[in-house]
Amino acid sequence: MIYRLYRSFLALSIISCALSVSLSQLFLLLSFVFFLFLEKKPKLAGNLVKILFIFYSWQIVTVLYHFAVAGFDTTSIKHAFRDEMKDIFLVTAFVSVQGIKKEDKTFLYKTFFVFSLLIVFTGFISIFSMTRLSRLISDLYKTSSSWPYQHHYGKIGSLNIYLPIGLMNTHLTFGGLLAFVFPGFVFRLYDAWYNKAPKLKIFSHAVLLLLISIVFLFNNARSSLLGALASVFFGIYLLIFFDQDISKKVLKRTGIIFLFFLIVLLTGYQTTSAVKRVVDPLFGGEKHTDSGRTFIWDSTFPLIKNNPIFGIGSGNYQKEIETSRKEREKENRELAFFYEVTQRGHAHNDYFHLTAVFGFPQSILYLFLFGTILFTLLSANIPKSIRFMTYGLVGFFFSGLLQCYFQDDEVLIVFYFLLGYLNLYAEENLNLKDSQERNKIG
Question: Is 163 left (phi over 0), alpha (psi -120 to 50) or beta?
Fold first, then answer.
């Protein structure tokens, strides 16, 4: 009974990540509570578990350090857990997945696939919706005082086109979720074609890939697109050199399909204003955030330089960046306006933000986490279907070069669910290896 409740709430939490962050975290809390009461709990000893433990241990060390520096004022800890440290709770997503029984791994795979489908379909519908679809969820528990409109791109024929954000609140958050699921659709189509699946199955995967490609293109979150492309290239690399599946013939056919897509895109660019407004920002046109990032980074570097080991502390970024920004304005008076109007909630780069807040040891550990994920995908004998589902974890670290997705709880919770799912197979292989070694000794 307890296991079934745990499994149900875990599935609901994963699926509701596409619907509402509040719902997903509520179901995550319930699934974790029931996980704690499971009779048989997994013995976690894999590399991913170890690096996550060290990663967050260092964060706690920095919190205690700044607590001591502040004269043991509890306000320091309150601020810490009101900002960056609040996301430590989301690690329970990683832990909760580990309670799934071996026979239910397929059930969990289907759950992630349902989440992926919700992302695609809500994204596609939102292309044609003048108002944000999130009202469908928020109106269940509160009355909307206004109608939140979506960004209007223009028209394709008689259809009004809007920037798709699914059921999320920002296009960047939705872009982060798209980057997780996009590689799965790419490689599921490839796998169906490669294994000569029924034509209907191949066609359905092709349609889904087309839909998510359209949504991703119109979403226009370039940081997420960068991450998704990195994930796909990594997957192609494994297919060529690791699985040795892709021949020159396959590459040629793929190139022809990609060329056809580019021709269609170019035709749309030349004939419709909506597509033109989507494509131009991808190459720097009509975008005003690129220069803004440089001002944010320039203001963040002094924080890193002055606090290289323990950082400025969780909860202190917005206060410290204001001081740094004012100093940079004095040194560059002709740029004062740009320093003043640039958004300053985070560093717009995961590596810079983590280093500024927690010091260089944290960013080094973050790179170790990335390396451990790569090592797991390359060497842990992970089934192809699971690799396809989790390739988005690789792109996450590339998206972080232009955006703070590690600070976005709507994206981070999915990161930990997928990482936990990957760890399920890594732990299974580790236990199998240990068992074989014991048998040899015996």
Answer: beta
CB 314 within 8 A of CB 80: yes
Quote the CA–CA distance of 131 and 122 in Å, as a whole number: 13
| Residue 273 scores a pLDDT above 70 | no
Q: How many CB atoms lie within 10 A of CB 107?
A: 13
**Tens digit of pLDDT for each residue in 100-136?**
998 999 999 999 999 999 999 999 999 998 888 877 6
CA dist list (Å): 71 to 58, 65, 77, 257: 20, 10, 12, 63
> 3-state DSSP call for residue 397?
helix
User: What are the C-alpha distances in Å from 338 to residues 201, 322, 349?
Assistant: 52, 13, 18
Torsion of CA 130, 131, 137, 139, to 10 degrees: -140
Which two three-digit tokens encode residue 132?
A: 């944000």
First to last CA, the chain: 38
d(C-alpha 31, C-alpha 92), whole Å: 9
Report in angstroms the alpha-carbon separations of 249 from 107, 206, 242, 252, 253.
35, 19, 18, 5, 6
Within 10 Å of residue 345's Cβ, how many Cβ atoms?
11
Contacts of 338 (CB under 8 A, 6+ apart): 291, 292, 295
Report the alpha-carbon distance of residue 414 to residue 406 in Å, rounded: 11
Residue 314 corresponds to which tokens in the numbers above?
């969780």
